[in-house]
Amino acid sequence: MNSSPNPAPRPEEIEAARLLLEKMGINLADLMRASSDSPGVPTFADYIPRVSDSVGSGTRRVYGSYWNRVVQAWGSRPITDATATEISQLAEQVKATVVQRRNARGGRGAAEHLIAALRCMYQHAVADGILTESQNAAARVPKPRRLHSTRRALPDSHLQEIHRHDAAGSVFALKTLSGGALVFYHLTARLSLASPQGEPLKLGIPGYYSSSQALTSATVDYADQFAVNIPAGPAGAAPIVIADASGIAGRG
Description:
It is a single chain. By secondary structure, this protein is α+β, with helices and mostly antiparallel strands. The chain folds into two domains: 39-140, Tyrosine recombinase, N-terminal domain (DNA polymerase, domain 1, Orthogonal Bundle), CATH 1.10.150.130; 156-251, no CATH class. The protein has helices at residues 11-24, 28-36, 44-54, 57-74, 84-96, 108-127, 156-165; strands at 170-175, 181-194, 217-230, 240-251. A four-stranded antiparallel beta sheet has the order 1-2-3-4. It is elongated and about 120 Å long.
């Protein structure tokens, strides 16, 4: 005796149902499609804008272009209709169309973001009660394996070169593809000016001092910002100034 509240159908009942569906011209695919096309299940084109409006600007900025790609590919389909295999295929298509640059990572980042964008959408659908966690197809798609970072620390010779040129202020450096360093300096100094004893100081600095003022001393803040390229090679290689901006930044 079967004590289950929903006993499994007997083989003869399954056969009878199959014959009935055959006579009605309905197959299993039609039943599954009808379930997906239920009025309670939105399409990608309907649901993605709703998700986009509910997330923060940072999330929207990262995932927006990938959501647009999903709408272009599957806009009219119910969100329950996409399979894990189809999501993997779309991620590969996105990966293949990425513009290749010198520091490109083979499109892995684009594929990863597409999968993450779909996971975000499906998580909202689960929270909205549109589908269950087991129906979240994106959760079953693994993200591409990340490659090791191409970023490397600056060698000691370049660090010594940076410190040698950084007498005061702030300095920031980036390693270049050629193995050198691009260094940005922000230096400040306070200059004190005084006239010979008993003589007036005539100082004309627009916006700070006028030559009509009766001064005996003045103090100004001077700022210098510039960028240099330290080429790869032996320590002591001469840096090349590639940008410079300096001038009076204030008065004491």
